Amino acid sequence: MKKSFILLFLCLAKGWCQIHPIPTLLTKNLYQNLRNFEGKGVFLGHQDALAYGLNADGSRWIGEKDRSDIHSVSGEFPAVLGLDLGRIELGTSHNLDQVPFEDMKVHIRQTYERGGFSTISWHLNNPVNPEKTSWDHVPGTVSKILEDPEVKSRYLSWLDLVAAFLSDLKTSDGDYIPVIFRPFHEHTGSWFWWGADHCTPDEYKALWKLTVDYLFQKKKLNHILIAYSTDVFRDKAHYLERYPGDEYVDLLGVDTYHRNPPESNTAFVHKLRSMLSILDQLSTEKKKPYAITETGLEQITEKDWWSNVVVPALDGFRPSYLLLWRNGYEKHYYAPYPGQGSVADFKEVLKSGKLILSNGIQGIYR
Length: 366
Ligand code: BMA
Known about the structure:
By secondary structure, this protein is an alpha/beta fold. 37% of the residues lie in helices and 15% in strands. It is built from eleven helices and eleven strands. α5 packs across α6. The site of beta-D-mannopyranose has 7 residues, from loops.
């Protein structure tokens, strides 16, 4: 215990701090380098990038080795890989979007070997009634996890499965591969059972603390960074309403999607800039990096979306990364694929160095 207090003091004195008192060296280096890299470009991520995507005719490819839509259009892999553990709690072999958990481990390792990093969300089912999904609201679920011994013990057994997955992420040298874990996201909205209308701020914070304490202390994981990501928020107070505390969060995030273009282009840029300016301020105050933890325009219907919306929204800010959501199927995709209408504009923006892929993220673990 003493050693951890000394380390905590040392990292506070250095002006940066991650919440785990004794992180692995790779995790510590990743965190510090995220901070060192701020303002030099935004690492571009893509959810399920290595698991599936779209062919030029809009049909799906699934499970092909070393394939990624961003790679197909740019020759580089995403710097950041997004994955989701939804359904791991049920003991199934595939997640809610039919990605095999064993493939995910391979993809996380490949991303690490290419110099990048991975971020993991968890659309978990409802621990009160495990047949119900994240989107099914059983009233009072969060309070039941905290207070009903049977529900709590089910939830903790689900965390055991998450921890087993995370413990299986190893480099070829046998070191743990660091990942960013991003639980209970978009909680300013109410579409998930942990959303704003379904629990009080105190209940949300207690669930968060229970989760992080269990993973760190009981499961002894010290290779995960913890991301807090709301959906859209009005102001600083709204962002922080359910914030569990500086000792429970490594990275500040926001999920926000662009809908109804072109009418909304200016409003989306304006709203994103206003949220980034709050995250920028909080990042300075709290000495923590920030990121756009999910975003995108479904079907990228604007040919110049990257230069006309993304670049102006980011200008002057220093988020560490931006994660595009998944290329699920022809009507539900967020990253360009060969032949997609925004490819030329995407490649121009890549040339500017404002968005960074695998070639530009070398050295982040040193
Ligand atoms: C949503 C959609 C769903 C998917 C879910 C979890 O935004 O992409 O199709 O199942 O995320 O990944």
